[in-house]
Amino acid sequence: GAVVSQHPSWVICKSGTSxxxxxxxxxxxxxxxxxxxxxxxxxxxxxxxxxxxxKATYEQGVEKDKFLINxxxxxxxxxxxxxxxxxxxxxxxxxxNDRVLSLNYNEQFFGPGTRLTVL
Amino acid sequence: DAxxxxxxxxxxxxGRAANLPCNHSTISGNEYVYWYRQIHSQGPQYIIHGLKxxxxxxxxxxxxxxxxxxxxxxxPHATLRDTAVYYxxxxxxxxxxxxxxxxxxxxxxxxx
Lengths: 119, 112
Description:
The complex is a heterodimer of chains A (119) and B (112). In chain A, 0% of the residues lie in helices and 50% in strands. Chain A is mostly beta strands. Chain B has no helices and nine strands. The mean pLDDT of chain B is 93. Chain A binds chain B through residues 4, 6, 31-32, 34, 36, 43-46, 49, 51, 91, 93, 95, 97, 99, 102-103, 105-113, 115, and chain B through 34, 38, 41-46, 49, 85, 87, 94-105.
């Protein structure tokens, strides 16, 4: 099956710094990637949808200037948490969609997640 | 997408079948039922999906009622590694550009 990787798997940073999280589709081209956030004991919350070569679409309540998303290629999307604060500490998960595979299989492939802790 | 209702939690003994219900009474004719699961601190994993016929794969079976208003995910022989949160999601099949929206899911605890 299709594989999605994330890097780093966990990161600890100081308040006020910026953190970049990478999401890669390893064996397919992802025309669309999604970013989710998950707080402890809660479900996944969709943050934004990114399409290769265009601006991301953010969900209501998600600050686009704080969570910068870049989807510069068909295999890579990045999420940068700018000026991170302790309340940004969360589990960030990306998923990718392959239009060809989605016709015959499931529609989204998820990465393993990135645990961000802001001190 | 239609709303789904799942029990908050369930327990299952190792080796027994785990039957996880999902209600989706407002499902429309072109919406599929998908099941994903999330093991602690990992990304969600696809399990199975179906439209109206029962489906089976190497992981589980999906039983959809004739009126399609509810479904049951069956793990035939649960193991400790099946302890996870299970999400039932209803959505139209050809929505490749739209995200999966997760509800609260069912926390399944498998014990020895």
